[in-house]
Amino acid sequence: MMKRVKTITIVGGGTAGWMAAAFLSNPHASKDCNYEITLIDKTDPERIGVGEATLLNFPNFMACMGYQVDDWMPKVDATWKAGIHFPGWGKEGSDIWHPFAFTDVRGLPNGIYDEKSNLISYDVWTKYQDEIKLNDIQACYRTAMENKVEFEHLPTVYAQQIDCGKLVKFFMNDLKDKIRYIQSDVQSISWDERGEIEYLTLEDESEIESDLYIDCTGFKQLLSYLDDNTFTSDRLYVDTALAGKVEYEDRSKEMFPYTRCEAVSDGWIWTIPTRSRMGTGYVFNRSVSDPDEVRLKMCEYWDNRISPNELREIDWTPYIKDSHFDGNVVSIGLSGGFIEPLESTGLALMIRGIEYLSEALIGNRYEDIDKEVYNVKMHGLYDDCINFVNMHYAYSEREGKFWDYVRDKYKKSDMFTYMEDEIFDPTKKTWAGQKYGFFTGLNWQSWIHQLNPQRVPENILINEFHDSDFKNCLRDYDRYYREAVSHSSTLVI
């Protein structure tokens, strides 16, 4: 049955709610659809987030709505992000770098590089892996470790690190004349016989009726059925974070263009440098580690630059919503599911949920098939993210009761097995990936090689070429990257 959508009510004014409102109220972004949008929430933006890292779909999301980088980045405290640095994962002293992209091999002799073979620096590395570290052939790693960003050679492989509270304020200001904003809690929900929402009753007893409702109420899932969740603790190993903010002591060293996720005794600690301060959090499992002990360890990690009472405890049970689009309700953000903070999938999943919804509503309408497609896409995304995050905990040689717990409980995904097999099959191409996921085969391969370093077969596409050609290519790499570093700019605009 086809349903027309002219009015949309969003409940929840966190990051998900305001991002949805911004996108769906933008005629260009929302495929020329016109909606009357109401957003209902009483949340203070200052309470939202402590700094959050994004993936590559975030700058694309902002650009799609017409926001210019040099305008919005200063207003949301944003810095550039070239990738994620994972010190200590797998074993003590490890240095794993997850780049957003590898550089194409354009310095190879004529006839070696072409669009069909799609050779990249990773492929060259397979031939010289005994002599060269994978990180050494990545421009983004070299420049990032010098606290610089490099746009001349790599203009499209940066995301951002932002203050989510300031992002909400940015949207609130921009949308003040474009949507209806009601500062209220929802007191009750009226459902019809089909299980769809008829109207919402607010604190002042007024009623709000819409064609479509978007649930952005987080773990409360106010507009959703709580029994419509699939819990995923069997594949994920953390469920708590102690989060806070740390002031800079030396910006030149501490405001780096990447997110740092450092493995420690009870789990891992994130550091997200924004313009004014660093967001940080200790991620652990509350059934394994005592939160009070972890709180003290976190303060010690920061040399007491943050006090125990400044750390906010966030608990969750990882889950995926079985039906993200159910009846006339769409669950976006935490209400649709949560994995864990690793790999910055939270905002990325929000964005994709909003974009998929916009596609489902083309023509200001939707049908049952549109809901089914939406649910398949979103469930696939969440599942792919869980598989990728799960892989990070494999092969661990670290000591401590948390890592013992992980080793005892660890369950490898089918996708992990497939990617491992692909790594050791030289006939497979490195760019193989998933249909809906954020992480390609190359992301998997790079991570697994660094997590469990062992020699891998050389890419068969390069074996027929002379060794001298690649020696020259590697020399060109070094010159290319030294030039890249010399032309790099600072972290902020």
Report on the architecture of this protein:
There is one protein chain. With 493 residues, the chain is an alpha+beta fold. The chain has 3 domains: 3-79 and 161-231 and 319-388, FAD/NAD(P)-binding domain (3-Layer(bba) Sandwich), CATH 3.50.50; 100-157 and 412-486, no CATH class; 240-315. The chain contains 14 helices and 24 strands. The chain has a 7-stranded mixed sheet. It has a 6-stranded mixed sheet with strand order 9-3-2-13-22-21. Strand 16 and strand 17 (267-273) form a beta hairpin. Helix 1 runs parallel beside helix 9, helix 9 packs antiparallel against helix 10 and helix 12 crosses helix 13 (441-451). The radius of gyration is 23 Å and the shape is globular. The model has no long low-confidence stretch (mean pLDDT 87).
